[in-house]
Amino acid sequence: MNRRNVLIALIPAALFLSGCPYAYTPSTALLPQHIRGIAMHPVKNKTQHFGLEDKFTLRLQDEFTRGGQYPLVGEDRADGVIIAEIERYINEPTSYDENLIVQERKLWVLVNIYFWDKVQNKILWSEPNLEGTHRYTVESRPGGISEEEARELVWDKLSRDIFRRTIEGFGSVTGVLDRKIPTQGPAGKEIHK
Known about the structure:
- This protein is 27% helix and 28% strand.
- It is of the alpha/beta class.
- Helix 2 crosses helix 3.
């Protein structure tokens, strides 16, 4: 064994013995180069709360327009499409005063996100149950905000997370459940790879 091979063999042992922490970090999965323009499929609202999808769609479009890496285009000209479904919307009380009047609430929204590569006709990634939460003081208290204002803060957070997930790749945000590269599309149709 020559000197070079001995040194190469000793490096891992030296790192281990020196206490140098080593953590495996997977590389991010960025969008393929053939994707140049992105479209937003109309957000689907699966809750019983009317109109959530309109404000969320506008906020999501603003985030991608401001980001500027990929132009936001119509679905007919897009290479990739973001598909979002509002799965759950819960606004629950979290604290009360001595008269049992609500003082604080927690707004909790779950959104399923898919990115469809139109060129290759497949879902590139999905982020199930992406969570947006905001705990807030009710508007009847000093410094409190309305449910609508809390919702706008949740839309901001979710839009930033979806933008980051799309631009920076897999692992940049996390849903409540495991993330995966799906074998079925959002409508349950089998995807052909």
